[in-house]
Known about the structure:
Elements lengths: L1 H33 L20 H35 L15 H30 L6 E8 L2 E6 L4 E6 L4 H6 L15 E4 L3 E8 L4 E5 L4 E5 L5 E6 L4 E6 L12 E7 L1 H12 L6 H5 L1 H9 L7 H12 L5
Parallel strand pairs: 1-5, 4-10
Antiparallel strand pairs: 1-2, 2-3, 5-8, 6-7, 9-10
Helix pairs in contact: 2-3, 7-8
The structure holds copper (II) ion.
Copper (II) ion binds next to loops.
Amino acid sequence: MDKRRMKAKVQGMRRWAAAFAAGLTTMMIGASAMAEPLLGQPTDGALGLQPAASPLKHDAHFFHDIILLPIITVISLFVLGLLIWCVVRYNKRANPVPAKFSHNTAIEIVWTLVPVLILMFIAIFSFRLLFAYHDMPKPDLTVKAIGYQWYWGYEYPDQEIGEITSTMMSEADVKAAGLPSALYRLKASEPMVVPVDKVVRVQVTAVDVIHAFALPAFGLKTDAVPGRLNETWFKAEKVGTYYGQCSELCGVDHAFMPIEIKVVTQAEFDAWVAAKKGPPAPAATPVAAPAEGAAPAAAPAAPAATPTAAPAAPTGAAPAKL
Ligand SMILES: [Cu+2]
């Protein structure tokens, strides 16, 4: 009688597990079929990391997908198996008289050593990736990214381009430009422009509080610390537009300081540099000093609005298109 009930229960569990697995598979296939991952921006319903567009990100993919995920999966299944085994084999009914022992030296050595070995194995790949981040090839271009509350400034010291202010494009402007609404809070008024297939050194710093310069497709995430110059690098593999965001909680408008990197051909980059450096030099003045310029204008009307108004001001003041 008991056996029959047990058998029915096991069958029920099996059916439930099969349905769960089938559902999960359909969901995953559906999600991957539905969402062709977009390059350089998040994709609705997508699984996994953003597609890579720089060598470091490819290494991060390898580390996550090939090293970490299988280990995590095996450990999770193993622990789940142990739990099920304990529940089924050692419940009150199946094992009415429990054993009294509480130590087992062999097992304790194993469950200490095995995790240490697993961590050491992970460390090999983890440190290799960490060193790769610090092992920058000879840079072809240097851009200085400066974090402000709440926007970014980009300087090109070698090209003698002074600071370009990059604020968030407003929702109305994103709509007016015919861009997908998903790009709101990712689209900047002025992108950082870099040539394709070139090693770009990014020097990262901040003026007021700690920000973080982060862009998933290139595997970038570097703290922008006032009074300190951090360094990171990437080598964009494809022409296109890539988006990131400040990744250090930096104040009330933290979510409104996107990072947009536009990757173009060398010829287009040269043209852009020429345009930025070109004779209409006075145009650089209002762009370079948005905070000071905006503050007095806004002060008589509504001083309380100044902090939020300041970063928004250059959007209109910066007509320069790539
Ligand atoms: Cu920030």
